[in-house]
User: Which sequence fits this backbone?
């Protein structure tokens, strides 16, 4: 239960006193008002906007992944490496890349995409979008080793075996299938991990889009993220430049719009989106969360 309403900006005497705006929501921290901002804590990097390349510094960090034990990984983009941090320590350990951008087996380009760690095997998956490929460091954490290409070959292209600026990866719960938001090709590709032993002959299967950039139900335009239902295999895509979220059933040739405007209209009303990027589904697959990027908000939609 909420206690009596407080005046705007007045001090709270306990953690469950309420706001004075029309939401009447109890706050969990000692500040009354229509908006309260939590104090952040720097857990990696110098914390004062200083960039660098030593084992404490970061330079344009992008992707992040947190393990169940709260260790976490950061894509240190401009340092062409992935850093691992233990809980409570700001000293990073390089687990992929060598700090020099390149395409050798020990190098990364400028990794501006996502990273993912298979919690069962500790394999580290990296979207090396500058090199048009996806990499894996097998049982890499916490040891930096050579990287294995699992999708793409370093050349941008639209054939089944190539990628163009891959942005996001999603590994299914069995570790068998890797889904890639192939941004430059306006499609989502599915790669079977059993094919990585012969990458020269490996290729992906298009499971969403692949018909050029557009607004039609069989098209995507600049997809930036993908998640997959563990219940029915449906593929959810952030169709970023179309300002919508598309759902593609297994084997479907067209997608259906589940959030945003089907015709790509952008806006800030509750039913519209503006350049959505990040996607997540809760554990029981009741709700879809997305980062509505240009609207500077996170939206939640109930899955029907």
Assistant:
């Amino acid at each position: 239960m909420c206690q009596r309403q407080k005046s705007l900006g007045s001090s709270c005497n306990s953690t469950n006193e309420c706001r004075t705006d029309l939401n009447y929501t109890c706050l969990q921290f000692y500040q009354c008002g229509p908006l309260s901002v939590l104090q952040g804590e720097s857990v990696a990097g110098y914390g004062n906007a200083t960039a660098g390349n030593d084992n404490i510094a970061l330079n344009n960090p992008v992707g992040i992944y947190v393990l169940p034990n709260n260790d976490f990984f950061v894509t240190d983009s401009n340092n062409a490496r992935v850093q691992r941090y233990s809980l409570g320590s700001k000293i990073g350990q390089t687990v992929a890349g060598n700090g020099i951008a390149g395409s050798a087996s020990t190098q990364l380009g400028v990794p501006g995409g996502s990273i993912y760690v298979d919690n069962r095997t500790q394999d580290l998956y990296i979207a090396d979008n500058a090199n048009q490929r996806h990499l894996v460091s097998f049982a890499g954490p916490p040891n930096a080793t050579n990287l294995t290409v699992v999708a793409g070959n370093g050349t941008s292209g639209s054939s089944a075996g190539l990628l163009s600026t891959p942005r996001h990866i999603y590994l299914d719960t069995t570790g068998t299938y890797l889904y890639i938001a192939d941004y430059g090709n306006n499609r989502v590709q599915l790669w079977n991990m059993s094919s990585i032993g012969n990458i020269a002959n490996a290729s992906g299967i298009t499971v969403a889009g692949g018909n050029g950039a557009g607004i039609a139900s069989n098209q995507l335009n600049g997809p930036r993220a993908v998640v997959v239902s563990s219940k029915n295999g449906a593929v959810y895509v952030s169709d970023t430049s179309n300002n919508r979220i598309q759902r593609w059933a297994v084997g479907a040739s067209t997608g259906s719009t589940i959030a945003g405007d089907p015709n790509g209209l952008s806006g800030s009303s509750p039913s519209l989106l503006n350049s959505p990027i990040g996607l997540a589904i809760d554990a029981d697959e009741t709700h879809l969360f997305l980062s509505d990027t240009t609207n500077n908000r996170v939206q939640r939609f109930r899955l029907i």
About this structure: The chain has one domain: 70-302. Residues 19-38 have pLDDT under 50 and may be disordered. The longest strand covers residues 61-66. The domain at 70-302 is CATH 2.120.10.30 (Neuraminidase).
